[in-house]
Design goal:
The structure is a single chain. By secondary structure, the protein is an alpha+beta fold. It has 2 domains: 102 residues, 2-Layer Sandwich (Phosphorylase Kinase, domain 1); 253 residues, Transferase(Phosphotransferase) domain 1 (Transferase(Phosphotransferase), domain 1). 30% of the residues lie in helices and 12% in strands. A 5-stranded antiparallel β-sheet has the order 3-4-5-7-6. A two-stranded antiparallel ribbon has the order 1-2. A two-stranded antiparallel sheet has the order 8-11. Helix 1 packs across helix 2 and helix 5 runs antiparallel to helix 7. The protein is globular. The two termini are 35 Å apart.
């Protein structure tokens, strides 16, 4: 089996013995205990007025110094910070806002983020240093300091040039992160360029686990209303209630495509339009090309009349498709020449890789493991070393903007006609 040339760490073994109890895991138990209105009997003789959980929580909180505010959203406030004993060890402190609309005032996004980041430790996944609560019962996550912006900002900044080898390096770090999540039975469900933050040494880190979940038991209903629309795979747009790691692999493929063309690959204004644009590139799915597709809730069988293609020009890239998307006719997949013309930076191997990642039928789509086994990584050019990669230099303010969002939110600065935020008001499963 081919091993990725950049990194191939051993995944954490699943099960209750995954790892020794860490400080942050203990802190989670502390937070649960700290909501009690009365002190427990587990108090120390030296401080009879405070229970043991409160004292342990304070010990964690006092390890860090909170600095200036970097960003604020409806979900969280992000501050700069550092370790008290070592001011050179920088962190980002994400203070989750109390919201009375949720049980115990804590959004499920925060609970998911704490849970899964506590379970994962990998060079390409953002590190959770600690968790503590404050006197006003807010929860604060102490996260890794990632000052160089994100991949979306990088490809949008046209004063920065990069090569095929650079794209391969960034893509490999993303693939390593997703593979590691899947090996530990975790779906991310919101992979996109501005959730891929860049560390000071050039390492790409997968962040924002607010929509993540564990792999479901067979037959258990799951929600299809996840993943930011531009990166959402067709099975979710069609209403799939059972799915696996293929949803993350599709999102990965779109991210890599955007790095290569430096514009949105599959932009849209509505879910229906998103399907139309996907069909324009990959063809209309039928039972012959995607067995079982007709069973999806929102699937409509096309007639046999060929449909005119959407023109994927700069207008479409800005969220303004130039054709009427209500055409019900059958669309053919774009030929290989389309991919060669649009993705010259990826080369033949890279094109083969993203076409495998962006296969309509999730059962035929590459797995995260198969992505790392692809010949693209071992053939020329070799991936650029991370220390030699171009740097965006987004700074702490950009880091704050990225970390303050809830899962599924889109920056206000994006095109006004692009949906800014998904509707996650329904219960996510």
């Amino acid at each position: 089996m081919v091993i990725s040339p950049v990194l191939s760490p051993r995944p954490n073994p699943p099960g209750p013995g995954m790892r020794a109890l860490s400080t942050k895991t203990k802190t989670l138990a502390i937070l649960n205990s700290s909501n009690a209105q009365t002190a427990t009997a587990a108090s120390t003789p030296g401080d009879p007025g405070r229970d043991l959980a409160e004292q342990m929580n304070d010990e964690v909180r006092k390890r860090f110094i909170t600095g200036s505010k970097l960003g604020e959203g409806t979900y969280a406030i992000v501050y700069s910070g550092h370790y008290r004993e070592d001011p050179s060890s920088l962190v980002a402190i994400k203070k989750i806002k109390v919201n009375q609309d949720y049980k115990d005032g804590i959004a499920m996004d925060a609970i998911r983020e704490i849970k899964f980041l506590s379970e994962l430790e990998h060079p390409n996944v953002i590190k959770l240093h600690a968790v503590f609560s404050t006197k006003d019962q807010n929860i604060s996550l102490v996260l890794e300091h990632l000052p160089l912006g994100d991949l979306e900002t990088l490809w949008k900044t046209h004063t920065i040039s990069y090569t095929s080898a650079d794209i391969k390096a960034w893509a490999n770090m993303l693939a390593q992160a997703v593979w590691f999540c899947h090996e530990n039975f975790i779906l991310h469900r919101d992979i996109k360029g501005n959730n891929l933050l860049i560390a000071a040494d050039g390492t790409v880190k997968l962040a924002d686990f607010g929509l993540a979940r564990s792999f479901a038991d067979p037959g258990r209903i799951m929600t299809y209303n996840v993943i930011t629309r531009f990166y959402r795979p067709p099975e979710l747009l069609l209403g799939a209630r059972h799915y696996g790691g293929g949803v993350d692999v599709w999102s990965m493929g779109v991210v890599i495509a955007e790095l290569a063309i430096r514009e949105w690959f599959l932009p849209s204004e509505t879910d229906f339009q998103q399907l139309c644009i996907i069909y324009d590139v990959f063809g209309t799915p039928t039972e012959e090309t995607w067995p079982g597709v007709s069973q999806f809730q929102f699937y409509t069988a096309p007639d046999n009349t060929p449909a005119p293609s959407l023109t994927l020009n700069s207008s479409a890239a800005n969220g303004n498709p130039s054709q009427n998307t209500s055409q019900p006719g059958l669309k053919r997949a774009q030929p290989l020449g389309y991919w060669r013309n649009r993705f010259p930076l990826l080369g033949e191997d890279g094109i083969d890789l993203i076409r495998g990642m962006l296969t309509l039928d999730p059962l035929k789509r590459l797995s995260a493991r198969a992505v790392l086994d692809h010949r693209y990584w071992t053939n020329a050019p070799r991936p650029t070393k991370k220390e030699d990669l171009p740097r965006q230099g987004g700074g702490e303010q950009k880091m704050g903007e990225d970390l303050k969002r809830r899962g599924g939110e889109v920056d206000t600065g994006r095109a006004d006609k692009v949906a800014r935020r998904l509707d996650f008001s329904a219960v996510r499963k």
